[in-house]
Design a protein that fits this description.
Length: 128
């Protein structure tokens, strides 16, 4: 028994397969562009319109998507954009039960729910 335990591989403590994407942004005059917006949405497995609506509401700035780039009608620093993305991921991507990022959003009787593909849990989320 002791010999078998010694032969087991050591378990890494901080090996996560999910990496929070980095925002690539640029300020042009009074506008802010998130250049890798469609890649971020694909990485999170979320609809671009949902993520764009979140950024618009949180930053109090109208925005639109063109060719995979989100245009916000406001000057916003890279740090604020990154913090808002991390808040979105915490609220709308990570499962509230098991903490895994394997979730998707679905509407059930006018209520937006986050369903976890890993554990099967359903948790209601706020409307944006």
């Amino acid at each position: 028994m002791k010999n078998a335990i010694e032969k087991l591989p050591t378990k890494s403590e901080h090996a996560s397969r999910f990496k929070i994407p980095q925002v690539i942004s640029e300020v042009q005059g009074q506008k802010t562009l998130i250049k890798n917006f469609s890649e971020i949405a694909q990485n999170l497995r979320r609809d671009e319109s949902h993520l764009a609506k979140y950024f618009s509401k949180e930053l109090a700035a109208p925005g639109n998507i063109q060719n995979g780039i989100l245009f916000l009608q406001k000057k916003v620093t890279h740090e604020i954009l990154q913090k808002k993305l991390e808040a979105y991921i915490k609220e709308f991507v990570f499962c509230k039960v098991c903490g895994e990022p394997d979730t998707h959003l679905e509407k059930v009787e006018r209520i937006l729910q986050m369903r976890c593909d890993a554990c099967g849990a359903r948790s209601p989320t706020r409307q944006i």
